[in-house]
Amino acid sequence: MVALKRLEHGRLKTGRAICVAGLLLTGCATGENIGDVVDSGQADSAAVAPDASIADAGRSDAAVVDSGQMVPDSGQATVDAGQMMVDAMIPDASNCVVGPLQLLTNGNIDLGAVSWSETSGGGYPLMVDQSTVTGLTADTPTFVAWLGGYSPTSGVGIDTLIQDIVVPIDATPIVFAGKIRIATEETSSIPYDQLKLEILDSGTDVVLEQILIWSNDDANSAWETFSGTSVGNYAGQTIRVRFISTTDTSLNTSFFLDTLSASTTSCQ
Prior knowledge:
Shape: globular
Radius of gyration: 25 Å
CATH architecture: Sandwich
CATH class: Mainly Beta
Distance between the termini: 53 Å
Structural class: mainly beta
Mean pLDDT: 77
Number of domains: 1
Strand content: 35-45%
CATH superfamily: Galactose-binding domain-like
């Protein structure tokens, strides 16, 4: 079954749709689109990372002189200052409780676009109420993230969902998890349409690591759980979590996300 189309501004455009034969999603949603980039086939992947901490508040020493007065011992104070810096990197288990920590805000997406930054090559909102997608029920009602689902008139359509997270200085490897639902009109196993979960440098947007990759070949008929662990050491850093979809000019693929998390353990 092909996507709905409509005439707008005198030009035929492919609507955003999830009319997919053989899958549970049976309805269509329409809209207009734009986009550009190219497909590249990649296999699914997953991956892990680090350690560091919180600390003792050091203090500076003093030395006693013959006059009976206390004067700073500058040499010892310098040593202590260096020791304080070392101490600041070592977890002091006696001063905290090590436990799980959720780094994402609004991971279940039920506050809409709160805490997330979204862009769509098709000009669509990416955080949508389940009522806008016929046949789909959110994993944690009522909002889901919907990337793709349209075909650009040329090139590749790109949608991105981004959130910056602060990683504690003593954090263990970050475990990313969530639910994904993929509906496609593609009939080939070639990954024409893709969704990637990546970690970026928050200042430069340079991709530091790819955690997971999905494509039209991973289409499913119900929500599935996914999980992947960071490999890089991001302790003490602010990093950018990005979901990015690329879709080509024909045969729509929709990537739905819900119940997202980025978990670590740290001294609290």
